[in-house]
Design goal:
mainly beta; Porin; 18-stranded antiparallel beta barrel; two-stranded antiparallel sheet; 21 strands; 51% strand; globular
Length: 441
Amino acid sequence: MNTPSPLSCLVLGTLSCAVGQAAHADFVSDSHASLGLRNLYFSHDFRDQRGPSGQAKTEEWAQGFMLNFTSGLTRGTLGFGVDALVLQGLTLDSGAGRHRGSSMIPDDGQGVASDWSRLGLTGKVRLGQTEARVGTLQPKLPVLVANDGRLLPQTFEGVQLTSHDLDNLTLTAGRIEQATGRGSSDRTGLAVAGGTRQSNDFVFAGADYKAGRDLLLQYYAANLENYYTQQFFGLQHTWALGEGQSIKTDLRYFDTGSSGANGSGGGRSDGYRVGGYTRDGRGEIDNRTWSAMFTWNLGGHGLTGGYQSVSDASNFVQLNQGSLPDKGAGGASLYLFTDRLLTSFNRAGENTWFGQYAYDFSTVGVPGLRASMVYLKGDGIRTVSGDEHKEWERDLLLDYVIQEGTFKGLGLGARYATLRSQAAPDQDQTRLILSYSLALF
């Protein structure tokens, strides 16, 4: 099992403080724990593109266990608490010819790992409506989104401060030092796709302002030392049209530029570079990406359309450790509408149209059943040859959560995705998921 990092060890001091007051506080009485179970069959066919070991396909089956403990907070001006996350993965079926990499199941040096695990501790301190969390984090922010697309989630080590003390305003700030990939038990430093050198300093800050009942304005800024500085502007608005009908607008703009070593030729030569096409082949980060999405909801129907434009000097980037030596470090999420099952449509120069239809069957008497289909088409992808490439992806999703009876809460999910691209291998992917959360106390 992955042992706590030095940063997480600070949590133990918080725990000692909290337990010392537990007899007259809510640390224990407000605590709760749950066990999450996830069974995942994963098939990824790269068609005719074979990997280093000759495989063109990954086909694996695994069981995940996620024990999540959340404490209450001690009474007093400062409230102290501690959370714990224990993750365990078990390989049920894989082997030679069906394990191309470590997208879901780690490598153990000789092949597929039979099991893997990690432990995360998070200390928390609250003053008023402001809370600081130190240790293991799973951020969901415009500048950093923890990935949960396989058996076990990606986690980060750092500190995050969130304040709700001002009416209608949420302030967020923090610093991240390390990451643990979704298919690994090992921590790494931080990088971008294509970068081979690690950074241990990602700082961020942002504000979410609710300007009205239906309008949210956002601004965030972030810096990954020796790689990039990024600014984000966002707007979300919901227009109610009547009984069960609304139109939601979501606008996003990112401005990302080189920082530190990535801004110099010597630094990029040392490995602080971004992958994919870059202007003059320099490996320098220089990107502006904007997107707009509109969703019309009517009863159980949801119809979505949108567009995204990526500038042509480099790919759009956020944290991605996939190019580091630890094979299990890969697997990252981007805060883009186009970040889907197989690709993210974030290549330099890429312009993408997308549409989605979703239906909630509860409106016809089948609560818990949802289905959706999305289609994305990107073109204008820049290449060294000067040609412009294009690609498309189609995703089909079906989910059902049993609402009553012996198996109440059991979730069943199916995902099927197809990618046809001139910029990447053609791919087909299938995921079958069984999930259940058991409240322990």
